[in-house]
Amino acid sequence: MPTVNVNNQVIHYEDSGGDGPALIFLHGFLFDQSMFDAQVEALQDAYRCISVDTRGFGQTEWDGKAFDLYDIVADVIGLMDELGLEKPTIIGMSQGAYASVRLAIKHPDRVKALVLMSTRKDIQSQEFNENYKTLRDAWREHGANEEMMNSLMFLLIGPQENFGDHWRNWRPKWSAFSGEHMYHTMNALLARVPLTDDEIRQIEVPVLSIHGLADLGTPVALADQLYELLPNGKGKVRVAGAAHAVSMTHPDEIIEPLRAFLDEYA
Description:
By secondary structure, the protein is of the alpha/beta class. The chain has one domain (3-122, 193-265): 3-Layer(aba) Sandwich (Rossmann fold). Helices cover 47% and strands 16% of the residues. It is built from 11 helices and 8 strands. It has an 8-stranded mixed beta sheet with strand order 1-2-4-3-5-6-7-8, sandwiched between helices. It is globular, with a radius of gyration of 17 Å. It starts with a strand and ends with a helix.
C-alpha cells in the first residue's frame, strides 16, 4: 500500500507508474480514489495515473483533527514533492475539484492543466448549508440511518434501479463513517471560504469541465457559471442521465473527450 507522510498525515495513493505525463485524481466527498478506477484503466497506457485518498477518506491515515480544503491542497503538494512531480494535470471531482481550483490559484506553477468534474463556483446558500449541517449533526448524534443513506446515494450516485452495483459497493463504506468522522469531513466543505470571480480568473491553465445533466446537488448551470469565468476553458462535457459521480457511473461517455483534452494539454 503506497503512502507518503506529509503534514502529519499518512496519505494513501495508487500509482500506475510509467514515464508518461502525470495525472493526479482527487475524489469527491464520501468517495475514495477507487472512484477513478475506470479512468486509470483507460489512460494508464499513455499517462502516469496517481489517485489519492484525501484526508478522512479511503485508506489515508488522517489524524482526526479539523481541516479545510487548503490542507488538502497542502497534502497534494507534499505528495507531488515526494514523488518528484513538478507540474501534473489535476483531475478533481466535486470536493476534489474545489481543492483543485484552490491549488491552481495558490500554486499556479505546479499545475499543467485542470479537469473539473461535478463542481461549481462557490455560492453562499444558507439553505444548502443548513440542510447539510442538519445531516452532519444528526449523523454525529445518532449515526447513519436508512433514510440518510438512501438520500445521499440517490443524490451522489443516482437512482438505485440504474446504479444498484454502486449502491451496494458504497453503502457499507458510508455506513462505517462515525459521527465524528462525518462531522469533521463535512466541515471541510461547509467552512470553505468562497472564491471571488477575480481569483477564478487567475487560473490560466487549460480547463475541461465535465458534469452530469441529472446532478441535483450541483445543477449544471452552476458548473457553467464557473466555466465562463475561466480564461482558458477548452470545452464542456455534459452527460445525460448522470448524477454527481459522473466519472464512476458514466465512464464510457467521458473517456473520449477526456483523453482528447489530455493528449493536447497534459
